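Bug: token stream looks shifted between consecutive jobs. Job 1:
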Amino acid sequence: MVRESNLLDDLDYKILEELSRDCRVSFRKISEKLG
């Protein structure tokens, strides 16, 4: 059980990392358009 929840936490963390990186890239593109 413990191993499974750790794996899920790992996946969640990786997904969140991907999302935050996508958000930063999108934000940079928007900033460039506005700037």
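Job 2, same session, no restart:
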Amino acid sequence: MNNKLISISGVIILYNPELNVIENINSYINYVDILFAIDNSENSNLDIIEKLKLNPKICYISNNENLGIAKALNQGAELALQKNFSWLLTMDQDSKFEDDNAKYFFNCFDKLENSEEIALICANRQSATNFDKTTENIYDFKTALIAITSGNLLNLELYKQIGKFEEKLFIDQVDHDYNLRALLKNYKIIKFKNILINHSLGKQVSVNEKLFIHSPIRIYYQTRNFLYMLSKYFFFFPCLFFRYGLSEIKRIFINFYFDRVNIKAKFRKILEGFRDFILNKYGKYENN
């Protein structure tokens, strides 16, 4: 890949962030030319905002309300395109690179060819087990079907071809919807197996490193948006959605078993998710 054509911007999505977001940003800020900090908080933390504004590389933008993950990602991508950047790093507020992983990640372009076919370059999650810590294997990569939002380099030229992140989903499945649209256009998702990103759970409750307890509202989004994805992509990716289906059943069981206090509320939100999918009602959840 020709490094002369590479210019990297970044976007981080904020929602009631904690102070450690500054440390997380510092783990990769030196590798981007500008970082768009899109704040979806209803009540922004002034102390954190002031600290962000001290860094000349950070462009802070407050939406003054939660407009959803997809909207914030699109804001970042459009701003990057306006400034003629070729790649956009997408990060969650709870994610960071540790040790030399950022250095390896942002120097990965020399290891890749045919960049015009690569929609996303992604790091592996710190909790992943399929990696080899030896430096000589650091650039082992594979093609992937899906990737989480955080720790991605988004090809902005292909973003224009693939289309924007689907804002009606609000949260959940926003990343996977973009991934599958990219694949249907015959673009590639490249995952570096041994370059790791630490993605913490934030305020979620964890049963173990792979099983999480979610709020009833989050269960609503997961249900509605999973059904949307199933209806849109099952024909093209049946094996993927068979695994998805099993994962969803497991997730619901875990949430009911380990959070029995909220069983009724979560069951209602599952039904509401089904209802709104059938009614083609998307966007931010409204209690009605």
